[in-house]
Amino acid sequence: MSSPAYLVLENSMTFEGGSFGRRPEEGGTVGEVVFTTGMTGYLETLTDPSYYGQIIVQTFPMIGNYGVIGPDFESARVQPRGYVVREWCRNPSNFRSEGDLDSFLRREGVVGICGVDTRAITRIIRERGVMNGVIVADPMDADMDEVKKFTIKDSVAGVSVKAPVVVKPGGETLYRVVLWDFGAKGNIAKSLAARGCEVTLVPHDYSAERIADMRPDGVMLCNGPGDPADNPGVIEELRKFTQTGVPIFGICLGHQLLALAMGARTLRLKYGHRGANQPVRDMKTGSLHITTQNHGYTVAHESMPDAVAEMRYANANDGTCEGMDYKNIPAFTVQFHPEASAGPLDTEFLFGRFIGMMKERKHA
Questions:
Q1: Which distant-in-sequence residues (6+ apart) come within 8 Å of 30 by Cβ?
Q2: Which of 143, 180, 218, 337 could hold 247 in an S-S bridge, CB 3.0 to 4.6 Å?
Q3: What local confidence, expressed as pLDDT, does residue 251 receive?
Q4: What are phi and psi of 322, to 5 degrees?
């Protein structure tokens, strides 16, 4: 029998459940409470660096049914500060499973709470917007001043590699790609390597000159956590790098950072887009794609100068910007995740578009 646990939101709404993972009596956890609608992919969610500093609410009722599978991780550790589920599966069944979710979260030092109405929590966030919260053993222990003041600080620095890391393709190296690491999901580098790219992940604070000196065929701007505007140094170096003529492909936070570097603004969404079922419309072809997403900010597309870029993709639910095609530099960016781990593979073709840009420049 698990010990009691409570999720207390910053508006003082309280949800009683049971604990799993690290027990809250060993120390509670404060974070930004967000929800994700993915029916599968909980391991990828837990290890996605974009969730750094957050408490995740899973809308799907049962989590953990296929256990813990190390090769499916998107990074080396669990990234969120807390985990909220309706029910966790105590007896997972999968030939690849290496253990259960409770033991895994306990080893990782992450507090979990189960047995709560996750759909009710989701409705509150949808109606009132993202808010902070705390998981504690006793609601009387919740320091609401601390909860309300909590902010995610130095998020990109907290998840970026500290030194270059090289991912080699299985066969011949056709292209050399620098992945500017703001908190990359592992499958981005794997997707490039599968297409003949040698990928070098570099720290977020590398300069434009240092990356240019590596003479890459292309640069990938990856996903990551936090407010994109909190990275002025990266934005300035990215602005400089756009003058090199090297093809650029941006995903998620990378999409937002390039937009900021090119003169646009970003805005915080009320509750973000998180899950593997976000519909995106291609404004050029009219086609619709189902995508994986995880972000709380969006590019204010109307703030982008018309001569610089045009919005290529739009969210079919709320009309927000999901991608940009740039006019004067060889670059395109998307808010969603074409590597889709986990999620649908509708937009994998975008890696082919990036490969085509590098091929064209290489053979020009």
A1: 81, 132, 133, 134, 146, 147, 150
A2: 218
A3: 98
A4: -120, 5
CB-neighbour burial class of residue 18 (10 A; exposed 0-12, middle 13-18, buried 19+): middle
Give the residue-averaged pLDDT of 227-232: 97
Rounded Cα distance, 160 and 287, in Å: 34
Cα 157 vs. chain centroid, distance in angstroms? 15
Size (the chain), residues: 364
As annotated, the active-site residues are 252, 337, 339
Write phi, then psi, for 150 (nearest 5 degrees). Answer: -60, 135
140 and 177 co-located in one domain: no
Domain count, the chain: 2
CA distance 13 to 34: 15
In the chain, beta strands by DSSP E: 4-9, 14-21, 29-36, 54-58, 62-63, 82-84, 87-88, 111-114, 131-136, 165-167, 175-180, 197-202, 218-221, 248-251, 265-282, 288-300, 309-315, 321-326, 331-334
Are the C-beta atoms of 235 and 258 separated by less than 8 Å?
no
- Residue 29 near residue 19, CB atoms below 8 Å: no
- From the list 155, 169, 240, 244, the residue with the least C-alpha distance to 204 is 155
Tell me: do 188 and 103 sit in the same domain.
no
Residue with tokens 């999968």: 94
Q: Which amino acid is at 257?
A: L
Q: Give the domain range for residue 134.
A: 4-149
Could you please report the per-residue DSSP string of 290-318?
Answer: EEEEEEEEEEEGGGS-TTTEEEEEEETTT
pLDDT at 1 over 70: no
Contact 361, 244 (CB under 8 A): no
